[in-house]
Design goal:
Elements (H helix, E strand, L loop, with lengths): L1 E9 L2 E9 L11 E11 L1 H8 L15 E9 L9 E5 L14 E5 L3 E3 L6 H23 L8 E4 L5 H12 L3 E6 L5 H7 L3 E4 L1 H4 L10 E6 L3 H10 E9 L13 H6 L2 E4 L7 H14 L2 H7 E5 L3 H9 L6 E5 L2
Helix pairs in contact: 1-10, 2-3, 2-8
Length: 329
């Protein structure tokens, strides 16, 4: 038996609860699959949507949510993995079309697993989770387009969120001057402790703006979208690069082509869900070398599996700072 958060949607409506499941309830182990004993998971924005039924995330019912998990392989039908291997999982439709990791056990596709870097415990891996791994993908994209320390200020939007917090910590440690945009003035000390050199009120970016504005940013990590992303693009310096990875403000992009054709700005789209294994491994290795684990602990709050539903409400209500790690055991 193992504990799992299980979501149902039927004639009686939507409901979410903690249930005890027999091993036989797990999906059958197919060719290329592994069965993992999950030690830690986490709450991401997509998990919050699923647990609160605020967005059409879940495609099959009933569903165990949890797009992230870290733990130990118990059984494997994949040539890369053996029982006892320590692994981390991010994305790949888990928690949407396939049972996820907010449970004591999970059956996962072996092709989507990454070997847990020796630097990290499973708890630390989930303190990073998809949010931190996405932040690292953003940093890699900025670097691939030529951003180097000393090139100028780097803007991080949604800075108190999971992606934003890790992005601030990573960029500052790599030597960039980071400006953190947030609507939470009380969190200024938190952001400065992560390495932010300056704090920007998000309202200066969230309203409609001109197609071209005063040049400021050498690079941007944007987790917000909509007018915030449009204004960030309009303020990016000649030859600068913007990594877009989120939609907290909206999916729209009310911008013009002016930053691209007049300033040579690059807009790099960041997808963490279906990113190829090579890029995932690169991101996790860079996280192992570049992320200050003391700062990671500052970002992290640990909760039990039985607290996840209530904290998902907090997450969707904007009442969570940094990362929520879910202890499964």
């Amino acid at each position: 038996m193992f504990q799992a958060l299980l979501l149902h949607k039927d004639e009686a409506g939507f409901r979410a609860g903690l249930e005890s499941l027999d091993d036989a309830r797990l999906p059958a182990l197919g060719e290329g699959d592994v069965r993992m004993a999950v030690e830690y998971s986490t709450l991401n924005y997509k998990d919050g949507l699923a647990l609160t039924n605020l967005g059409p995330v879940v495609r099959n019912w009933p569903m165990v949510p949890g797009i992230d998990g870290a733990g130990t392989v118990r059984e494997s039908r994949h040539p890369r993995w053996q029982p006892g291997d320590r692994v981390v999982h991010n994305g790949w439709g888990v928690g949407e079309t396939r049972w996820g990791c907010l449970a004591g056990q999970a059956v996962l596709g072996g092709d989507g697993l990454v070997r847990l870097p020796a630097t990290f415990t499973t708890r630390q891996a989930m303190a990073i989770g998809t949010a931190g791994y996405t932040a690292m993908l953003c940093v890699l994209a900025l670097e691939a387009h030529g951003l180097r320390p000393g090139a100028g200020e780097v803007l991080v939007t949604g800075a108190t969120g999971g992606v934003g917090s890790v992005a601030v910590a990573l960029l500052a440690r790599l030597g960039h001057r980071v400006v953190a945009a947030t609507g939470k003035a009380a969190e200024a000390d938190y952001l400065r402790a992560l390495g932010a050199a300056d704090i920007l009120d998000r309202t200066s970016l969230s309203a409609p703006g001109k197609p071209l504005q005063k040049e400021r940013w050498a690079g941007v990590v944007d987790a917000v979208g909509s007018h915030t992303l449009a204004n960030a693009l309009a303020q990016t310096r000649y030859g600068g690069v913007v990594a877009a990875c989120g939609l907290a403000q909206g999916m729209d992009l009310p911008a013009s082509v002016a930053p691209f054709i007049l300033r040579g700005v690059t807009l790099a789209g960041i997808d963490s869900v279906m990113a190829p294994l090579e890029r995932r491994e690169q991101a996790w290795q860079r996280l192992a070398s570049d992320l200050d684990l003391a700062l990671l602990e500052r970002i992290t709050e640990e909760i039990g599996l039985d607290e996840a539903i209530a904290r998902a409400q907090d997450l969707m209500g904007g009442r969570v700072r940094g990362r929520l790690v879910v202890r499964i055991a």
